[in-house]
């Protein structure tokens, strides 16, 4: 066997908050090798130590609050013994890194070209004109459109996918021996994720670099990794060739992690949503699934949206003249029965979140009507708006950001009740306790602050807060997207249980097709502000009609290692912008019923 | 951008008009008849009445105001009651000293403050950080008259390195001009150094925890370059704001310093004018200073676009 590029032995990384506290190890005695041209994936859930491992290799952890022990060898050289000056040459020279958040990982005050030229000139002694040439060449290599003009562009002018391409170009600048990719596609849309994964694979084949791929997504692992290392709370529980890990994982946690991944197509042939069979991490076995109830059909709709249109004016010039508008939501109509889950799916900028916000008039609609319990929610009637907001509640993506960090969670949950003057303090307290119990939290936790809870618990708190007003509809805006797979399943199950016992209707806004497939009665696919396809979940997933729906499905990574060598061959394509000039009349379209209740948009 | 500047200048005119109105009203609320003051103690009531008519003091207030504003627009700020010299001329004579002091103070305070702030943020939590911040607390708490006399005693009287007090116009040479400014600008600059250093440190600390700093480190950029090129510019907007406020505050600060070091500046002019109830001078100084405030504010807002490419007006 050839000598590995990176060889890690007995790596233990510990942290301490201050010099008076003892060291707490967060990564314990792990070891692995990565050879040239090979991809090793490190998978695990939040807190497993996978990112700390990659930062340890780069020695990017704060020197005073962390301690790295063991041996990290890059092509035989002991990185832990290098003085900082030498290590700096290794970073960006021999080892390059790309990160999860392309939005925040680029310096907003420097043009993207400068940032890459800086990486080149930091390691090779070449002139600035040459560095510029090389940067443009790299932009072409990562297929950034209009490479030449991009040099002088600031990061905020680029989309997420384009910024990640810039990050990759930066990482490749000095032809590193090892590329560390830390969740590089997690923040990207599925179709863009596929393009970025393909690009990394292709560049690896071309340059023969070793890749260390950090991710929580088993679908991504299956697609990129030759070998896989599974981490659990700082320990390696299993490692081996990816096919073996997937086909025949020995450790129960590995099996649990795999089993917990929602798979597209797992609901084929079933009409109703179904709870996730929860995985026992000790044994890796799956619990029972339970089919959800059908929606109540014989009652009037709780939410009706008719021809809803939301546009954001774009102004410029001397008198702030309207020079165009972002057509965020365009002529969207749907209705929601009690006990029903309608999912809105689509990629960033498709208008799914704006639709949710417009229903509650958190954003002002341009035209169209919203009926809650048959009553119109308009601009004029404040009472009607208040009662609509009581009947429709929201749960957001980031539970930590949605909770005031300085208010105890009990008070946060009770606030809407007291604000709407539905009862006194004692009643609010009792109801808060009952709801906390209902969402699986102990009422005694009421006086704690949000930071004392885990991500899943915080989302439970947000759900309890939404339930405080006995709503008929909950708009869940990417409510489970930020959670680990096992927690995601638990929170989805909780939502489904609550739906059945309380007769709630959900507008489930998500980009995660596999979760949507599980929880929905009906699905609406949004593209550039419009619903392009809407119908029963089984019909939309099993017989997608619109080309965009098909594209969206094809882009979802599947946890199947036989796709390792697969290429999508999708062209580099950005999601189009919904910006329109003034006076733009959206093209007329009609909805064609392809099967019962399954409608597809057709342009006239 | 040009449109924005024009719009802001338009707003400035409105602000200046309001300031003018307030100054005018204030002056007319003040006790005493200006005609009686000008005419002197021995004037007869007839003389005063004649003077009132000559000065237009019998006209309705709005007419007086418009007439006064008309003069102001033409650069005529009136005549000092005490010295009979035009106010505009009085202020111009004193402006050189004050502007010299302000510029010297900024030239001293801003670079040192930013350097201190950047170093303190880079070494946050260490002894270096603590010493720098202790220094900045001291800078805050030492009043200018204490520090001024201390510096004056040490450098001028004991070591005889610099002049004790006074001011030399720049037309008599750069060095004589600068020599006289060193002690006053250090005295005056101490507070600003402390203020700007603290803001720089806070702003830098926030930026240093950003993802793109980690990116810069991951590509092997050297520490000084990370601090200056990547972090400082991102931390720049709050720093620019504080420097802008600092310039505005400076104008109040010059009064004490000019007194301590006996510099014939606008600060001294206004102190003397208040003591003599020389209303036209007070009025003129207020107008000129509010003009400077508004201009500094505009310059601060425009500096944001130079710092941050995402800010466009």
UniProtKB/TrEMBL annotation, chain B:
Subcellular location: Cell membrane
Domain called ABC transmembrane type-1: residue spans: 95-304
Family: Belongs to the binding-protein-dependent transport system permease family.
Keywords: Cell membrane, Membrane, Transmembrane, Transmembrane helix, Transport
Membrane topology qualifier: Multi-pass membrane protein
Protein name in UniProt: Peptide/nickel transport system permease protein
Superkingdom per UniProt: Bacteria
Signal peptide: none
Major localization class: membrane
Alphabetized PANTHER family for the sequence: DIPEPTIDE TRANSPORT SYSTEM PERMEASE PROTEIN DPPB-RELATED
Sequence intervals crossing the membrane: 12-30, 99-119, 131-157, 177-197, 235-261, 281-307
A Pfam family the protein falls into: BPD_transp_1_N
Keyword Nuclease: no
SUPFAM superfamilies, sorted: MetI-like
